UniProtKB/TrEMBL annotation:
This is Hemerythrin-like domain-containing protein. Residues 5-111 form the Hemerythrin-like domain. It comes from Nonomuraea thailandensis. It holds the Pfam family Hemerythrin. Residues 162-185 are annotated as: Disordered.
Length: 185
């Protein structure tokens, strides 16, 4: 039987907490942990925004997601071990734990009260699909950012098409690489 959307959302929250604990413990590569946090939080937020919030008129959650995105961005740019990194990490941890607490104490119980079990499972399916779609797009972006140089011209063109880069059909391989790099920055 498919998992209901509340179970899936809570599972994501536990994973996020694990990643924060790992980052605080100083074990593992901080850059890799931040990248995993970024992917998970972004995919989770998009899926919640598309599948859950419209049903509950939860505008406040959107603001929390925006705040988390800004902090995630600072965390990604900061040097691990530095004060900026520590500051962004601390703020993000507070912001996310507030979001998790609020959802689990108010939003999800409301969803449970107002939605049938069958519907919760249908929502779960949609949530999972939306989340996976977002994760795939993020992995694609990360791969393009780290290893765009070894791609063939056809692959570069395909990426330029997805990024909707104008004039791509007339570009050389080098020009496509440059345009993609510019689109990413
Ligand atoms: Fe959430």
């Amino acid at each position: 039987m498919a998992a209901d959307v509340i179970t899936l959302i809570k599972a994501d929250h536990r994973k996020v907490e694990e990643l924060f604990a790992k980052l605080s413990s100083g074990r593992g590569d901080p850059r890799a942990i931040v990248a995993a946090l970024h992917a998970l939080l972004t995919a989770h937020a998009r899926a919640e925004e598309d599948v859950i919030y419209p049903r509950l008129d939860a505008h406040h959650g959107l603001e929390q997601h925006k705040e988390a995105e800004v902090l995630l961005d600072s965390l990604k740019r900061a040097e691990p071990g530095g004060t900026e990194f520590a500051g962004a990490h601390a703020l993000l941890a507070v912001s996310v734990s507030h979001h998790v607490q609020e959802e689990e104490s108010t939003l999800l119980p409301l969803l449970a009260r107002t939605t049938s079990e069958r519907e919760l499972r249908d929502l779960g399916r949609t949530f999972r699909q939306r989340r996976q779609q977002e994760l795939r797009a993020l992995t694609w972006k990360a791969r393009a950012a780290s290893g765009g140089g070894h791609l063939t011209k056809t692959e570069l063109y395909e990426r330029a098409r997805e990024a909707d880069i104008p004039g791509r059909s007339r570009m050389s391989k080098k020009e496509l690489e440059k345009a993609l790099a510019r689109a990413r920055s």
